[in-house]
Structure prediction request, 336 residues.
Amino acid sequence: MPLDERIRVAPHDFRVLTGDRPTGPLHLGHYFGTLRNRVELQRRGVDMFVIVADYQVLTDRDVADRLVETVDGLLLDYLAAGLDPDRATIFAHSAVPALNQLLLPFLSLVSVPELQRNPTVKDEIAHSRQSAVSGLMFTYPVHQAADILFCKGNLVPVGQDQMPHIEVTRTVARRFNERYGPVFPVPEGLLSDAPVLAGTDGRKMSKSRGNAIALSATPDETARLIRAATTDADRHITYEPERRPGVSGLVHLAALCLGRDPQDVAAEIGNAGAAALKRTVTEAVNEFLAPMRERRAAYAKDPGFVRDVLRTGNARACEMADQTLREVREAMGTVY
Ligand code: TRP
Prediction:
């Protein structure tokens, strides 16, 4: 049975583990790429763990500056997007010692050439601004296996770039079970079917490209970003992603926010030109984000509550990680 179907029939057979590096505000690309999917899985009753990967963030910066503020912002984004702390366990992996301890036996189960072959890590190293590759950079996919396996997560909704890490996780789980006995599930990656969202310059929406619309942006900031978006000289608005990435990216964004077909949105604007397109997009995005902004503002007024969400999640994750580590040590024969 296809994975999607199995989730629909038996949501309680699944435990989802997913999460983000706290590198800055989440944007619409995150929302349509993964957040929306998480909220939907939560609604269907899947047990959900969401990790704030605050150690992994050290892979891509020399100093993790202002991490506390970034983590608080990420929590607000999660809550604004609809993650429900009563149903989802939101936690930071630096706060779960037993999770991190799993990294040690896991590292013994993969070879250095296997780590060197990971295409996502290779790509990140190629684009890294750091002068030398850290040991953490090479091994973070194994750390990510610990993120997933500490709670025996068996379903990991991710983007395509994360699939090599899911493969590492599956390898680690299989090898551990073969060597020491059955402890871990072999998790499955769940690819989101949302196509890549373009930013305001027609390229993939990404914070580092400066083309992203943050979920926390104000209506004015949003309007300004869209006004400055790249279009082309052809007045007639169409949806042709290959030929007209700028215009089509905007059409797509409006269509996603309106829940409509991009071809129809483009046809409706027709000969009215780029200015009309931008007005449509701005209105659609601002209307779409309004309830999220409202929720975000309400939570932002209550920082104590937001911290409690994380503390409660950390405590729940610790309980689960301690239990798994006990099983691991029993299987390995290291209980003294
Ligand atoms: N690597 C993920 C990213 O950069 C974040 C992450 C850390 C993650 N641990 C995870 C995702 C475990 C899924 C499962 O976005």
